[in-house]
Amino acid sequence: MPAKNPVSKKEKPKVGKRTPKTAATRKGRPEGEKKKLRIQDLERIREKARALATIRDSQWRAKITVHMGTCGIAAGARDVMDALLDEMKKKNVKDVIVTTSGCAGLCNREPMATVEIKDKPPVKYVDLAPDKIRKILVDHVLGGQIVVGYALAVGSETMY
Predict the structure, then answer these.
(1) Nearest to 120, CA basis, from 39, 50, 55, 33
(2) How far is residue 57's CA from residue 49's CA, in Å, rounded to a whole number?
(3) 51 in a domain, yes or no?
(4) Domain CATH number, residue 116
(5) What is the 3-state secondary structure (H, E, C) of 13-73?
(6) Which of 91, 97, 115, 148 has the fewest CB atoms within 10 Å around its CB?
């Protein structure tokens, strides 16, 4: 039986294979390396977030925040959010921001929502259901009348 010849075959170089060390993006950074943020970038992001968060200086008529912490979701906040978005679509409301937040600290009063209308104090609504949020949208947001039976408080703790 002939002995096996330990002749090694030349390995072909892997063409087109890039490694993180050798690969470069168009900007000259190694692939996978993220762009570093500068102070100016952070300031621009902050101003954009503030503009969205405050309706006072924006083109929006109102902002509705549905509180969707764990307790809110367990109490039905998703159904409230779905009903709100559905009603806004039916009424073709395009100048109202809808946002979510975490727990507002009143778990026994969930689902909750806060309505902020330009130049008016915010109103916190509690013990919501889909039919209640629809009424709040129509009467308060579109009609300007607070739905007193569902409101817990008027006014807010302002953060600066």
Answers:
(1) 55
(2) 12
(3) no
(4) 3.40.30.10
(5) CCCCCCCCCCCECCCCCECCCCCCCCHHHHHHHHHHHHHHHCCCCCCCCEEEEEECCHHHH
(6) 148
